[in-house]
Amino acid sequence: MFDGLVVGNLARLIADSVKLENLAEIRMRVGKRLLLLTTANARIYPRQAGGSYIVTKEDIDGIIARATNLSPYSVSDEMMRGYIPCKNLRIGVGGEGVSEGGRLLNIKNVSYMVIRVPHQIRSAADSIIDRVYCVPRNIECADGEDTAAEKEVRSTLIISPPCGGKTTLLRELARLLSAHKNVVVIDERYELAAVSDGVPTLDVGDADVVSGVPKAVAYENCVRAMNPEVIVTDELFRTADVVAICDVMRSGVKVIATVHGDSVDSLRVSDTYGELIKRFELAVILGKKPVGQIKDVVELWEY
Description:
By secondary structure, the protein is of the alpha/beta class.
């Protein structure tokens, strides 16, 4: 299962409990029941003879060893940010932090793990692509005139609660827009393109991909060196991300980005995220049930 990441009895139990095409997450906590989450938000606790499967430290240690080719230290920087990149999967980890002088040095005794399984849905952006890539409002075209040359990408903010389908939609927008524009994907956590050995394992079209680089650094380097017309970036999380992305937009590059939230108003009143509402042109609001449902599309010029 998953190219040998989950093996043995654990793999068989998961395969017997849920169709793999419907599996969204595997959640493991040492000494607790194994939990599977599906794309329909169902919660499944696999059972075997004698009761529920109880996760062991050996289960988690084995997955870490296989994910890192027996070298956890090779991904220590990522682990300190809470995840391990592994082909087309993202493995979130939790344990004890080792710090000195207020600086996090390492993560040990990993006892909590979330394996997130990406799902590429090629129709995810079909209903909004004509609002993201369209003729600007201030350009009038004669009846019957070909408007393809007049189309522009609008900087778009995707707002969603956790596990609401942001990454799936973002990936599809990158794929579709890359057919028309120079698109650079900034994939700090390896979720969008799931790069393995430098090659995306998920389809982002003709986009260029920069993975594993902190956003603020990647934005500056890409604008200077890769001549993007559009930057597609995963979750904006802290003030530094917001400041950096606003500076990118000042340079004339269009941006498609995601942020956690439930509405435009919740971001507008935030000290950290309020500036995004002023800079982006369009907001797409996702719900969580069902995953990926587009609740609303908001023209931010109205704000």
